[in-house]
Write a structure and sequence with these properties.
4-stranded antiparallel sheet; 23% strand; Dna Topoisomerase Vi A Subunit, Chain: A, domain 2; 3 domains; 30% helix
């Protein structure tokens, strides 16, 4: 890759003073392919860039919300962010808690490109840590935003895109959980050139994620087409596929212990799954009341009502063992608390209980399935 050439300093000439201010595209070009070293210079641990597997976010924690992608642009995923991630400038903004202009100056400083041409690295975390009052104010603002989106949405009907999406997944519901709604035109945002950009408005299936206090911790959003298919968008800069599913959280740690309470516990019994569609399949296949915990990490940390004494964990059968390990840790915690726990895994690697349910529906009479969704 060609390097950006910077004129040498001549005797008696102050090049720094006479050079024009460098714009964002110039700094972006100079940073291309060098983001790991730039971010390390700004204070991020080098371990952040040693693997592209999911891990805790170096900026905001969690367990597996962060993934380093790079592609010479410093691309990353952090599912705690509204935009779900971005490029190297966005990661600097996330790390330092500053705006794009400050992030641009920090990167330019590492590259020795600023107005002074000197290596002027901003110290990591220049912005002070927000106070508890600031955090509460941000959470209140975000809670208002979540409530507004929920009010804009409507209860599911068999004529909307959300119901068509569920039907296409093999989930034919006669009635719909109160924590699900259909939004007719939900804005889709992503980061383009370091700034948020709206790519359009699309139908979406919304699911409330409720914490142990009964408050809305997040909205799980599945963006759809009018016909009910999962939305397929590409990033306007990179062409990368953008996620159709996003999680908008109330605050950083709001979702710990939270879940989508699709069907309330009955006679002390409750089933648990990771994903929304998997949970609906478990309910249709077994008749059990069920909560969806959003992810393997959410399954492991879910907090149950005191009335629940009999738990069924319907874990995914991941090749990575992620789902199984989360189920095992939850089982140990619940058993230690005196609950009865039974864990179920699909027999085949790479399958979840929606796969099992749909296969069981395709079995012809007189030819019973070898596996079904049963308590």
């Amino acid at each position: 890759m060609s390097k950006l050439l910077i004129p040498a300093r001549r005797e008696g000439v102050n090049f720094a003073r006479n050079m024009p201010r460098l714009d964002a595209e110039t700094v972006r070009y100079a940073a291309s392919g060098r983001w790991a070293s730039i971010l390390t210079a700004l204070g991020l641990s080098a371990d952040t860039f040693s693997s592209k597997r999911n891990r805790p976010c170096p900026c905001c924690g969690g367990t597996d919300r962060f993934q380093w992608i790079d592609k010479d642009a410093g691309r990353f995923v952090c599912r705690a962010l509204e935009g779900q991630g971005g490029d190297g400038f966005a990661l600097v903004m996330h790390w330092q808690g500053r705006d794009f202009k400050a992030a641009l100056a920090a990167v330019a400083g590492v590259l020795g490109l600023g107005e002074t041409q000197a290596l002027s690295v901003l110290p990591a975390k220049v912005a002070t840590t927000p106070t508890k009052l600031d955090g509460r104010a941000i959470a209140r603002k975000q809670a208002i935003k979540l409530a507004r989106l929920w009010e804009e949405a409507q209860p599911l009907t068999k004529m909307d895109a959300a119901c068509r999406y569920l039907a296409q997944r093999g989930l034919y519901l006669e009635s719909f959980p109160a924590c699900l709604r259909h939004h007719p035109a939900l804005p889709y945002w992503c980061e383009v050139k370091g700034e948020p950009k709206q790519l359009g408005c699309f139908p979406a299936l919304l699911a409330q994620v409720i914490d142990a206090k009964g408050q809305v911790a997040a909205l799980h959003r599945t963006y759809l087409t009018d016909s009910g298919h999962k939305l397929a968008l590409s990033h306007p800069e990179t062409g990368e596929a953008l996620p159709a599913k996003k999680l908008m959280v109330r605050s950083e740690r709001a979702t710990e212990g939270a879940a989508m309470p699709l069907y309330a516990p009955d006679a002390g019994r409750l089933a648990l799954t990771e994903g929304l569609e998997t949970a609906l399949a478990v309910h249709l296949g077994s008749g059990l009341p069920v909560w969806a915990c959003v992810s393997a990490g959410g399954l492991e940390r879910v907090v149950l009502p005191d009335t629940v004494r009999d738990v069924f964990i319907f874990a995914d059968h991941d090749a990575s063992q992620t789902g199984q390990r989360a189920a095992e840790r939850l089982t140990r915690r619940l058993q230690k608390a005196g609950l009865r726990v039974r864990t179920r895994h699909p027999a085949q690697v790479g399958r979840d209980w929606l796969d099992v349910f749909n296969q069981s529906q395709r079995i012809q009479p007189g030819n019973p399935t070898k596996e079904g969704v049963t308590p």
